[in-house]
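Q: My labmate handed me this sequence with no annotations at all. I'd like to see what the chain might look like in three dimensions before we decide whether it's worth expressing. Could you predict it?
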Amino acid sequence: MKISYISVFHDNTGYSHAAQNNVLGLDAVGIDVVCRSVSLNNANIPPKERILKLEEKNLSGVTHVIQHYLPHMFIWKSGVKNIGIFHTETSSIRPIGWQYHCNLMDAIIVSCEENLKTLKNSGVTKPVFFAPIPLDEKFYQSTPDYFDFGPYNNHYKFYAIGDWSARKNYESLIKEYFLRYTKNDKVVLILKTYVGGQTAEKSREIILAEINKIKMNMRMHTVNVYPPIILITDQVTENQMLALHQQCDCFITVEKGAACCLPMVDAFAVGNSVIAPNKGGQTNYFNTNSNRIKLLSTELENCYGMGNAYPGLYTSKETWYNPKIELPEKIESTKEKDPSRFDYINNFGTKNVGKVWENILRNI
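A: Here is what I predict for the chain of 364 residues:
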């Protein structure tokens, strides 16, 4: 078996990071993998070194072609097994017609059980398999950099990572944060975010304006009484990202629908607490009975606010799960990270999850 894995390896998006980890899992169990890159943006950020090496290999003898991007890009190729991979955040793919593209493939692999149900209920007739995205063990073994948060270095640090969009739901998170705490509480919210298509400086300007607008519209008290928010809009290295996880206390994802929030998985893997919706892929990536997990109740609502998305995607004919955000009243920072994180990294590491992928591919 020889795999040609085609994806957006250089795009520095959730898709590119998921694709890289999937390839590392296949590679870890001895599967012959060749990487080929396409792009959906202008980022051109070099992927992991192993991916670059696998991009140099030739395509001779390929038996399986994996296409990991949006389904309207899927192409059936003769003489090989065709596998499509994508991630969806809404309750149906019928409105955009992606079921027809999925049915061109020999099989589809998704990263959570929620997506598996969605595809089967959306008219996908080809086999659909669930395989987790593996963790890259080397990421957690690297030497982190250090973030200087100034007067907030010793504060309890909530943090979130992702683009600034209606689906990521940061406006609702900030409202709850402002309602729950004041500047007299030893707490800070750190947002590693950006506005799609904008520079780091312009992203910062736009997001600060949105935060100030929230403060003015909440009209609770003067703006200098709200608890602090730190924005990180620059690109960061892997070592800086690891530092962010290790220096913070509680990761928050309140996005509306998620196939898998990889920064959340990384946060849990370094031993942090996590606040996440009770619907979506995140429940496939940890033990929901863990005392480090707080799951938020959710309800289905019509999609709204994604004006810059791909045409036909996230229309109000679709629905996604919207979490009811609740932050803890009492916060307590711990110096020691949960030691069970090592078992978690091993269980979801490249070799263990790579075996799951290998079994699926050999049965397609």
